[in-house]
Amino acid sequence: MGGGRRGPCCGLHARVDGGLSGLRSRFRAVHSRYGRTLTDLAVGGRPVLIELSVWRLFCDSPGCGRRMFAEQVEGLTGIPASQPVAAAPGGDGRGAARRTRGSRLLQILKVPLSRTSVLWHLMRLPLPAAAIPRVLGVDDFALYADVYGTLLVDAETRLPIEMWAGRDAEQLAAWLRTHPGVEVVCRDGSLVYRQGISEGAPDAVQVSDRFHLWQSLSKRVGDIAAAHRGCLPAAVPKPDASPSPAKPVGPSNQADTPARRHSFAKRLFEAVHAVTDTGRSLNAAARELGLNRRTVSKYTRAATWQECVRATRPRRPTRLDPYLEYLRQRWEEGEHNATVLHQELLAKGYGGHYQRIKMAIASLRRGLPIDTPRERPPSPREVARWITTAPSRRSLHASEGLRRILEHCPELDRTHDLVRQFAIMLDTRDAAPLPAWLENLANSRLPPLGGLAKAIREDQPAVVQGITTPFNSGVNEGRITDLKLQKRIMAGRAGVPLLRHRVIHMAILRRHYP
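Request: output the structure for the sequence above.
Response:
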């Protein structure tokens, strides 16, 4: 065929015919001959086909379960005979690991294989023998919904070793027993992994990752900030006294003030807990108080009444905000024409519409103060971020707002001091103050911090190793990020065996072909 090389038919026939005379003892007769075409790797970008003429033979052995055989040419054919993907980029087919892109690449290389065949050849590749690591990283990842998996990484070579579905202690302990010699294991604060390591490798040093320790502390700080939501408006500086006439307070203006909302939430919180603390069900409490069951459930779950205060939507800033003081000044000077004021503001750089200025001075015409914008209070998440951020890295706005909050709320001030003490231990890698810090944590009379102190005490040796040693789970997190990328490439449809092959082989490919 054009562009290819064809097998030497005469010589091939001579080999087959000559071999038949020595096979009469096993094969009784010749059934037929048929043509067979083999596909070889492309040469110069052109496909290569090898055409053969092959014998079908009857078997005369009484113990043989097959009646007919197709002759194989030694060194040329085999079952299966098609192995072109093994010579794809990477030398072992791993370069064609992506299903669709791999099949397209092989088509360009004149090696026609379907997407399913590419995955089939990939799954036939043996996984490399797992060397026993000295430092092992263990972490979990989400496969889908509530199903999790476990990934093992060599923390020194930074290569993934093994992966399986589930995150139970028995699987990890069994793997460690069959791979003795692990000296250090880096993990998060999971009780399951702690038990598995203790059972499978009791002599290994367990290291609780410092990132997860800081993450756990930050979550508790957020819970404390949410519980003291009523103290967060103290971060906003008080507005200066304005000589403008005060807004009259009527029934309509008095209906939804913050003081009334706080008073209502406190009275309702006390009433709900007075009923539910006696052991009555939510439905019974809802019938007795005349409330919706969801409202009763919300106030029952809350630890303090501040958690139940309905948050108000803050006023959105507008382009007119920087010019409101100028409008007030010009109004007091006697200029009450909205068109003239609009022209003056355009000269100062205002890019808004005339109607916005007309609406702004409408309150001044009615003798009311102009709508001066006020900064909204920070959210509990923002305050938690301010507390956990190093003072040298806080912005001026965050530093001033946090200072006002800490002066107003002693609980948040106590939390801030404890967080800074733990940050110093991590920065200096000194775990000597840890026992005293845990005692202060337990005596802080803050339930989230008390629960954290109990959890750290149960895992204190691993926490000490996480503070004082350089071992961490950073490699694990990086490999899990790569694993999630492989999942997205396959649209989340890959099973654990295929995902394991892809993650391990792709990591080796990147090491060989950076």
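The longest strand covers residues 27-43.
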